[in-house]
Amino acid sequence: MDLDDRTLQGARAAAAATRLADQDVIAVILVWVDTSGIARVKAVPLARLEHAATWGVGVPPGLDAFLLDDSVVTGRYAGGAPVGDLRLHPDLDRLVPLAALPGWALAPADRYAQDGAVHPLDSRSLLRREMARLSSQGWSARAAFEMEWAVSKKGWGDDFTPACNGPAYGMTRVSELSDYLRDVLLALEGSGVAVEQIHPEYAPGQYELTVAAEDPLGAADTAVLVRETVRATSLRHGLVASFSPKTELASLGNGGHVHLSLWRRDTDTNAMAGGDGPSGMTPSGEAFAAGILRHLPALLAIGAPSMASYLRLVPSGRAGAYACWGPENREAALRFITGAHGEQHRAANLEVKCFDPSANPYLALAALLAAGRAGLDTRATLPAPVTTDPAALPTQERDHAGITPLPTTLSESVEAFEADPVLRQALGDAVIDTVSVVRRGEIALLDDATPEQITATTRWRH
Ligand code: GLU
Ligand code: MG
């Protein structure tokens, strides 16, 4: 960031502050997501927004090495002595009033060193870099996160007590919490989020909300905004929302499924449809999907990054515990969605089911784009589609079809991640080392914990 950029950002922030003052905003929250998938913030009064956009707000670099319980580990690139400072800059293109918290606005933020260089562990910048790489090869991507959460009557520290009792997909659950759900929708509309659907999900107290696809950076920003809007609205209704992969041991978990499609930039056409490849994919669409499928075990260190992730990621848990793909198969880690006949050219997309909401959405998309790009580079092809629940197949048949289980522990995922040359080349040593050291920190923290204890420790952190 040079002086011209700073001057421009300052002028834009001053104009934005005038607009926000008319909407009764008095302070702006600058938010970034750490390596453990937790949204961390600093806030400034509206009058300081111009300064924050020009010079940034100081934040400690050590937060990259924080675990979910706020303890810190030491890596080669993060953690250790609490020395140094980074500058947090609001992205004014994504600055919105946070309608769920009257008086507040929210801006996703990028982290720079004091000399203006991009911080190598800044996950928004990493995602921008991956988008630029894809773009230079003539492609763009569209993405959206599905948000699942479970809402409890009691507060933090208490067990989970579902705030509603109706059945999965049941109308009862809408009626029980209709004011709450209305306020979630109103708040999202007030913050400019294009909601597509909302429904009661399978687990007790669980709901799901889907939003329109955007460019990947926008999709990750929206995931953060939706989550914090749901959390804030829940609290205003005396409820507590959990986005943990596992809210209750005996129930299905919260997924953070990622929808992703690849688009040709010159023709603005969707490579996931209109081709003569499997399920109508073009050869490039297939190669992109195959790249992701091939790297799934390593990708889990980013997409299923917590100990609780592996309590969710079990066969027949609708989470996609097997490394396979299949059209509309909810038990395949990679579900292919064709869309309704007549709408495929817009709607066809990949759904990465095995990812959950404890993932940093920026890192998740950066890693998925890198894996997809590797597929494009090598013209990778997909194996045969799987059209049944792989867990229901006899082991021999599953082995014969080459359907392998995904890692069943965080340790296995981290090993695959560290050994993956494609992800290392795309993300860089600093990210590989820091992600791995943070994951190992969480493994050590919860090594002796029972599944119940892991669930309880994680429940209110995400
Ligand atoms: N809650 C399930 C998960 O953990 C997903 C259920 C569904 O959307 O089919 O991924
Ligand atoms: Mg769902």
CATH topology of the largest domain: Creatine Kinase, Chain A, domain 2
Count of DSSP strands: 17
State the share of residues found in helices, binned by percent: 25-40%
Per CATH, the class of the largest domain reads Alpha Beta
CATH architecture of the largest domain: 2-Layer Sandwich
Radius of gyration: 21 Å
Structural class, by secondary structure, is alpha+beta
Indicate the proportion of strand residues: 15-25%
How many strands, what sense, and barrel or not for the largest sheet?
Answer: 7 strands, mixed
Residue runs with pLDDT of under 50 for 5 or more positions: none
Distance between the termini: 32 Å
- Please state the overall shape, judged from the principal axes of the Cα atoms: globular
Ligand inventory reads: glutamic acid, magnesium ion
Fourth CATH level, the homologous superfamily of the largest domain? Glutamine synthetase/guanido kinase, catalytic domain
Q: Mind explaining what this structure looks like?
A:
This protein is of the alpha+beta class and 462 residues long. It has two domains: 3-63 and 70-111, Glutamine synthetase, N-terminal domain (Ubiquitin-like (UB roll), Roll), CATH 3.10.20.70; 130-458, Creatine Kinase, Chain A, domain 2 (2-Layer Sandwich), CATH 3.30.590.10. It has 15 helices and 17 strands. The protein has helices at 3-22, 49-55, 123-136, 171-176, 178-190, 216-236, 283-303, 309-312, 344-347, 361-377, 395-400, 410-418, 421-427, 429-446, 451-459, and strands spanning 27-33, 39-45, 57-59, 86-90, 96-97, 104-112, 139-145, 147-152, 195-200, 206-211, 240-242, 258-264, 269-270, 322-327, 332-337, 349-352, 404-405. Strands 7, 12, 13, 14, 15, 16 and 17 form a seven-stranded mixed beta sheet that branches. Strands 1, 2, 3, 4, 5 and 6 form a six-stranded mixed beta sheet that branches. The longest helix has 21 residues, at 216-236. The radius of gyration is 21 Å and the shape is globular. The chain starts with a helix and ends with a helix. The mean pLDDT is 96. Bound molecules: glutamic acid (GLU) and magnesium ion. Residues 146, 148, 201, 208, 255 line the site of magnesium ion.
